[in-house]
Amino acid sequence: MTSQKRTVVLERPASVERVPVGNYMIDKVRLRAGERRAAMSRRQQALVNSETVKVQPVGQATLIAGGPLTNSVSIVRRGKTLVFNYELRGQGGMEYRLINDRGIVQPEFAVYQGDHKVASGKFEFG
């Protein structure tokens, strides 16, 4: 989180953390579970930059981000074509993308008719 005067990094946050008083913008959210990693999507980042977390001298402020992450696919028919839309969402409805050492991981899919695979591919981002 970033304010005009300081940056706060919550490396392995507990359920309750103490941070200096101020108005903070969420700069980045990166998650790790074992070897699996995810980062907030760029599209989500643009939306979140306009929101602030206000930490006041008395009381609590809540930052809702992180896991668990939920995979979902919506399918829309366009003529004879089926369009698959993949989303990976976390707490607060934030959208994430999977990453590895080489960059973004493209989720894969397969379509079966009974036990027979009839199609497969990878989702493109964007």
Q: Strand-and-helix sequence, N→C?
A: EEEHEEEEEEE
Percent of residues in helices comes to under 10%
**Could you give a short account of the major beta sheet?**
6 strands, antiparallel
* Structural Rg: 19 Å
Distance between the termini: 26 Å
Classify the beta-strand content into a percent band.
Answer: 35-45%
Enumerate the spans where pLDDT stays under 50 for 5 or more consecutive residues: none
* Structure classification: mainly beta
Shape: elongated
Q: How many DSSP helices? A: 1
Mean of residue pLDDT values: 81
Description:
The chain has 126 residues and is mainly beta. The chain has a domain at 70-122. It has one helix at 42-48; strands at residues 22-25, 30-33, 36-40, 52-55, 70-78, 81-89, 95-100, 103-104, 108-113, 116-122. Strands 2, 3, 5, 6, 7 and 8 form a six-stranded antiparallel β-sheet that branches. A two-stranded antiparallel ribbon has the order 1-4. A two-stranded antiparallel sheet has the order 9-10. A hairpin with a 2-residue loop joins strand 2 (30-33) and strand 3 (36-40).
